[in-house]
Amino acid sequence: MTKVPATWSSLNALSYAPALESASIVKLRTEYGLFINGSFDAPRTNEQFATINPATGETLTNVARAGEADVERAVQSARRAYEKTWSTMPGAQRAKYLFRIARLIQERSRELAVAESLDNGKPIRESRDIDIPLAAAHFFYYAGWADKLEHAGFGTNPQPLGVAGQIIPWNFPLLMASWKLAPALAAGNTCVLKPAETTPLTALLLAEIFQQAELPPGVVNILTGDGETGAAMVAHRGFNKIAFTGSTEVGRTIHRSLAASATPLTLELGGKGANIIFDDAPIDEAVEGIIDGIFFNQGHVCCAGSRLLVHESIHDDVVARLTRRVDQLRVGDPLDKNTDVGAINSSEQLERIKELVAAGESEGATRYSSSCELPSKGTWFAPTFFTNVSNSHRIAREEIFGPVLSILTFRTPEEAVAKANNTPYGLACGVWSEKGSRTLWVAQRLRAGVIWANSYNKFDPTSPFGGVKESGFGREGGRHGLEGYLNV
Ligand code: NAP
Ligand code: MG
């Protein structure tokens, strides 16, 4: 007869056999050029940099670093494509290309998922089941809009803006590229996209997909590079739109440098989301929501539920269940299908996390970190939460962007709302309660772009996403996502 484990700790002792996804499906070249006018070529800078696997520290491949002259070439290429082909093409024709791209992403989904996990460090379970399917879904969704723009609620004959410059971060590389490209292309714009320095791979594979889909040359140009490449794009006055996703700090710089120009701007910036758990919430489900809210993608999530606001009467119970659950998270090889939490994307990000965690300890909060064993190579941080946190602590105010949760308490719904709103950010919040009336009462008073009820970190291409306050402005996703790329 099978022996039933007597305690949770004996259950934890059960080990899983490794279930590794093979990396052989990804065939990388030894170097990649810039994708301009439909083909890859060398950067005018003659400079390259390595992109590494954060789980091992090994170099995956070398990519080009674009400079000012390359930005100029990419803008010219996008301008020609805009005038000669893309903006004059019937919407139904543009839709055919977008559908084709969506299907090719699906066809190459395993390869893209492995490449994303190798370059970013995220678990294959997430890249396979979330990032890549959602990326394809965004292209499918906006393909559907391309020939129906006059029904989108932006006038009877909405026009594209022209050439869009798009700058994205490293946390969801292919998904952020899709969020930016799909609505822009559906609306008839052409694009110059810059992926983040540490995660250029899937954008380069997407460029190959554009070639496979026979997308007309110049409709999308991809410039790999660093912050200087991004700054050169923002300084170039040939763009008719700049769309940026990244930190509030860089967003502020971009906002400032475009202040005197007429270039429309969308900013999707940082967050410090509150996940609010009332005493009538289904606690085990809420604990899963807390885990999902902060440990999904190693906490490298702009809308992460990084502040837990828990009703005082259930605080001890929630913390006890959370402790047990945190200890069960499997941290390790991103290519293992059993892995829950992967590698921290870069050593710079790891240092930022460590610095804020040290501040939490020195300011008097109580730290609990999972006792999991961390791999010896690569960049890692054990899932962590802090209790005894007060609103004035840095860990309650600053975005940690890592697997670190700050737990605060409240006694009344009014106090929960006041604490949740006590932040310069306003991207997302979660509310857990059995009572719909209470959830709606709270949701109406929260200052955030997205509110999830009895769930967290749920994304869908039909649903608009974006922030208020220092989390930025403009919306991506849904019908709203077209607005930023149309002359309305
Ligand atoms: P980041 O440092 O602001 O970088 C974002 C992008 O901007 C990268 O491609 C970066 O290039 C580039 N960049 C850096 N300096 C620039 C400059 N002066 N001018 C123009 N571009 C510049 O942000 P990150 O650390 O990569 O990403 C994490 C941040 O993004 C977090 O704060 C997170 O909350 C936010 N985020 C927000 C959303 C949202 O939808 N609201 C989604 C995801 C992430 P390099 O990588 O080459 O430096
Ligand atoms: Mg990398």
Short descriptors:
2 domains, binds magnesium ion, Aldehyde Dehydrogenase, Chain A, domain 1, single chain, binds NADP nicotinamide-adenine-dinucleotide phosphate, 16 helices, 488 residues
Identify the CATH architecture of the largest domain. Answer: 3-Layer(aba) Sandwich
Strand count, sense and barrel status of the largest sheet are:
7 strands, mixed
What is the helical fraction, as a range of percent?
25-40%
Tally of contiguous helical segments:
16
Give an account of the 3D structure.
By secondary structure, the chain is α/β, with parallel strands linked by helices. It has two domains: 23-269 and 468-487, 3-Layer(aba) Sandwich (Aldehyde Dehydrogenase, Chain A, domain 1); 271-453, 3-Layer(aba) Sandwich (Aldehyde Dehydrogenase, Chain A, domain 2). The chain contains 16 helices and 20 strands. It has helices at 8-12, 68-86, 91-107, 109-120, 124-145, 173-186, 201-212, 227-235, 248-258, 283-295, 315-328, 347-362, 394-397, 413-421, 436-445, 480-483, and strands at residues 31-32, 34-36, 39-41, 48-52, 59-64, 159-160, 163-167, 190-194, 220-222, 241-245, 265-268, 274-277, 307-311, 366-369, 384-387, 404-410, 428-432, 450-453, 472-473, 486-487. The strands form five sheets. Strands 14-15-16-13-12-17-18 form a seven-stranded mixed sheet, with helices on both faces. α3 packs antiparallel against α5 (124-145) and α5 packs parallel to α6. Magnesium ion is lined by residues 51-52, 119, 198-199.
